[in-house]
C-alpha cells in the first residue's frame, strides 16, 4: 500500500497552531419588545433557530436575521433585538441568573443558540484578524445548514455531561470556525480577505502551500517566484498586493509562528527548535525570532507559558 501525504493546506496549518477551546454554549428565548447587548471576548457563533430579530453594531446599519440565519461576531460588542430602536440591557445580567439557558421579554417567539470560543495560542490573534467584525450566513446559503447543525450538536454535547464532551465541543467549534472562514473566503471581495485572498489566486496559492508545507526552509525570492512561474519583480509586486506582505517576510513570519508554537509545547529546547527549523546557529534563530515576536525565544517561553487562556 502506498500512502501519499496530502497537499499542504495553509489554512489548516494556521488553525492547528491556534488552539480553539469551547468557552460556553447558551440558548436564548425571547419575545415582545426586547434587546440584549453582548460583549464577546473573542469569537461568538449564533444561529436563529426560530423567529426573527435584528443585529445591531456600532457604525453599520441594523441587519435583520430570520430563522436559519447564522452569524459570527469577532471581538465586537453587538445587540440582538426585536426591533432596531429598542433600548438594550446587558446580556450578562440575564444569563447571570438564568445560567446557560435564558428567557427574556414576553413570550418566546424567538430562539437563538450560541457558542463562544477562546483561542488559547498567543499567535491566534492573527486568525481573528482574518474575519470581519460580523459575518452573516443566510439560511438560503448551503453553508448555513451545516453551521446550524454543528451548533445544535455543540449544544447537545455541552449539556450532556458525557465523557469526552469537552473534547467534542472543542472539535465542533473548530469545524464551526472553519465553516465561517470558508464562507468568508468564497463570498468576500478579495480586498477584504488579507492573506486568505492568496488561497484563491492561481499564482499565489502554490507559493503559500510551499511556505506552509516546509517551514524549516529558508526561502529566497527567486525560489518563490519560480513556484509562481513569474519573474522576481512581477511576483514580488503581485504577492505584496494580494497578501499584504513581501514574500520572504511572510515566509519568515510563518516560520517564527511555528517556532513559537513549538516553544510553548515545552518539550524541545530552544536549540532543538532552532535546528528543526533549519537554523545553523541559536544566535541566527534568536535574531529572526526577536524580529517577529519582539523578544528572545527563551524569554518568550518563560513569559508566555502559564498565562491563562482567559488572559490571552
From TrEMBL:
Q: Which PROSITE patterns match?
A: HTH_ARAC_FAMILY_1, HTH_ARAC_FAMILY_2
Domain HTH araC/xylS-type spans what residues?
205-303
Q: Mostly located where?
A: cytoplasm
Q: What keywords would UniProt list here?
A: DNA-binding, Transcription, Transcription regulation
Q: What SUPFAM superfamilies does the record point to?
A: Homeodomain-like
* InterPro entries assigned to the protein according to its UniProt record, in alphabetical order: AraC_lig, AraC_XylS_family_regulators, Homeodomain-like_sf, HTH_AraC, HTH_AraC-typ_CS
Q: Where in the cell is it found?
A: Cytoplasm
Give a short account of what the protein does.
Regulatory protein of the TOL plasmid xyl operons. XylS activates the xylXYZLTEGFJQKIH operon required for the degradation of toluene, m-xylene and p-xylene.
PANTHER family noted in UniProt? ARAC FAMILY TRANSCRIPTIONAL REGULATOR, HTH-TYPE TRANSCRIPTIONAL ACTIVATOR RHAS-RELATED
Please report the name of this protein according to its UniProt entry. AraC family transcriptional regulator
Gene source species: Pseudomonas petrae
Amino acid at each position: 500500500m502506498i500512502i501519499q501525504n496530502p497537499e499542504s493546506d495553509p489554512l489548516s496549518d494556521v488553525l492547528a497552531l491556534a488552539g480553539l477551546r469551547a468557552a460556553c454554549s447558551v440558548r436564548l428565548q425571547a419575545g415582545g419588545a426586547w434587546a440584549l447587548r453582548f460583549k464577546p471576548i473573542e469569537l461568538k457563533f449564533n444561529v436563529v433557530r426560530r423567529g426573527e430579530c435584528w443585529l445591531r453594531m456600532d457604525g453599520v446599519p441594523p441587519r435583520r436575521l430570520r430563522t436559519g440565519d447564522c452569524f459570527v461576531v469577532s471581538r465586537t460588542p453587538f445587540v440582538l433585538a426585536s426591533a432596531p430602536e429598542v433600548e438594550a440591557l446587558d446580556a450578562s445580567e440575564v444569563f447571570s441568573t438564568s445560567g446557560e439557558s435564558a428567557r427574556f421579554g414576553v413570550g418566546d417567539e424567538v430562539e437563538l443558540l450560541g457558542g463562544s470560543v477562546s483561542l488559547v495560542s498567543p499567535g491566534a490573534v492573527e486568525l481573528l484578524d482574518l474575519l470581519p467584525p460580523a459575518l452573516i450566513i443566510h439560511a438560503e446559503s448551503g453553508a448555513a445548514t451545516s453551521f446550524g447543525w454543528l451548533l445544535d450538536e455543540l449544544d447537545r454535547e455541552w449539556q450532556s455531561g458525557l465523557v469526552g464532551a469537552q473534547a467534542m465541543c472543542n472539535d465542533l467549534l473548530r469545524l464551526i470556525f472553519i465553516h465561517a472562514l470558508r464562507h468568508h473566503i468564497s463570498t468576500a471581495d478579495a480586498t477584504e480577505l488579507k492573506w486568505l485572498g492568496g488561497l484563491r489566486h492561481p499564482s499565489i496559492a502554490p507559493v503559500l502551500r510551499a511556505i506552509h508545507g516546509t517551514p524549516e526552509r529558508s526561502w529566497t525570492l527567486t525560489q518563490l517566484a519560480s513556484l509562481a512561474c513569474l519573474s522576481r519583480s512581477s511576483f514580488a509586486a503581485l504577492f505584496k498586493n494580494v497578501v499584504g506582505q513581501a514574500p520572504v517576510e511572510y515566509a519568515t513570519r510563518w516560520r517564527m509562528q511555528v517556532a513559537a508554537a513549538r516553544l510553548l509545547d515545552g518539550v524541545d529546547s530552544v536549540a532543538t527548535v532552532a535546528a528543526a527549523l533549519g537554523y545553523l546557529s541559536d544566535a541566527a534563530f534568536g535574531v529572526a525570532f526577536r524580529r517577529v515576536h519582539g523578544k528572545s525565544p527563551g524569554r518568550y517561553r518563560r513569559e508566555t507559558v502559564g498565562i491563562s487562556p482567559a488572559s490571552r
